[in-house]
Amino acid sequence: MQLRWGIVGGGNISECFVRSLFNKPENHKVVAVGASSEQRAQQFIDKLNFPAGAPKAYGSYEDLVKDKDIDVVYIGLLNHLHKRNVLLAIAQKKHVLCEKPLGLNEAQVTEMTKAAKEAGVFLMEAFWTKFFPAWQVVKKGVYEKEFGGLKLFTARIGFSRHGANKMQLQYGGGDLMATGCYTVMAAMWIFGEKPSKIEVSGVSLADGVDERASVVLTFSGDRVANLMYTGECDLSCSAEVCCENGRYLIPEQLWAPSKLIKISWDAKVPRKEEVFPLPVEDHSAYKYPDASAMLWEAEHVHHCLQNNLTESPVISHKDMLELSQVLDEILRQSGVMYPDSIL
């Protein structure tokens, strides 16, 4: 089964996603690209030099989703454009993989998941992090209690080079939605539940977007996640999962890790470092580090559709809704209010 993809948006993230698909041509083919103009769509196509022949270029997203040759749509637009274009695709009975965050609040995510269920189509938020082998090893180890019961989760992520659009309120920007959401998603996934308590200490810019915050999430059994995110400086972007008898360390690039270190509290047990290969070694053509691994989320979509699933067992509608609820509360405590015009 070869999935026929329509690409909505001609930015860097869409380019990375498309390049990743080139690594598994038997399962994936891009048949159409839509941008804000046909010229921009054609420029995107010309730049990528599609190995299986050039896809069609559309000058509007509405026209792209009507293409009967498309099975599934990838949406790589700015945050404030997600809901409208997800709903456009669903209305045309297209399956959808949408970049994170799926919506700007719980109400938007509820509307999209409801529409997908009613239409009988697949909808998934593109948190590619969950498909990295390093995180899957951690998730399995916690579930099987390799180091005993889970106690504490810590994560921090920070960049001083966010794109201007990602930090503007009218585009659904801010640091939580840009990168901080990775730490929240990972904590909820590892604990396997929604936190019972959320405490935020943060700083917002004069225009209302959040610039940095420290977040404490409390889970059942008084277990805690300590999270930090910022858009004003570069951090190590690491995560630690601490259990009764040891811990898992993601030393860098927590959103897309290739390395995992296991550390036992027993001094006689040597620490174990694992390095996981990516789909390709050379990433010089990619705009973002290790972006060939976007193939893994596409492969998951392929698996789900091949098995006639309309929800991912890894990123379910419930997962997406609960995450949106927690992000809503973090934004509320941070004093961030998106304008009604984009909600």
Automatic annotation (TrEMBL):
<dbReference type="InterPro" id="IPR000683">
    <property type="entry name" value="Gfo/Idh/MocA-like_OxRdtase_N"/>
</dbReference>
<dbReference type="GO" id="GO:0047115">
    <property type="term" value="F:trans-1,2-dihydrobenzene-1,2-diol dehydrogenase activity"/>
</dbReference>
<feature type="domain" description="Gfo/Idh/MocA-like oxidoreductase N-terminal">
    <location>
        <begin position="3"/>
        <end position="126"/>
    </location>
</feature>
<dbReference type="Pfam" id="PF01408">
    <property type="entry name" value="GFO_IDH_MocA"/>
</dbReference>
<dbReference type="InterPro" id="IPR055170">
    <property type="entry name" value="GFO_IDH_MocA-like_dom"/>
</dbReference>
<dbReference type="GO" id="GO:0000166">
    <property type="term" value="F:nucleotide binding"/>
</dbReference>
<keyword id="KW-0560">Oxidoreductase</keyword>
<dbReference type="Pfam" id="PF22725">
    <property type="entry name" value="GFO_IDH_MocA_C3"/>
</dbReference>
<protein>
    <recommendedName>
        <fullName>Trans-1,2-dihydrobenzene-1,2-diol dehydrogenase</fullName>
        <ecNumber>1.1.1.179</ecNumber>
        <ecNumber>1.3.1.20</ecNumber>
    </recommendedName>
</protein>
<dbReference type="InterPro" id="IPR036291">
    <property type="entry name" value="NAD(P)-bd_dom_sf"/>
</dbReference>
<feature type="domain" description="GFO/IDH/MocA-like oxidoreductase">
    <location>
        <begin position="136"/>
        <end position="248"/>
    </location>
</feature>
<dbReference type="GO" id="GO:0047837">
    <property type="term" value="F:D-xylose 1-dehydrogenase (NADP+) activity"/>
</dbReference>
<comment type="similarity">
    <text>Belongs to the Gfo/Idh/MocA family.</text>
</comment>
<dbReference type="InterPro" id="IPR050984">
    <property type="entry name" value="Gfo/Idh/MocA_domain"/>
</dbReference>
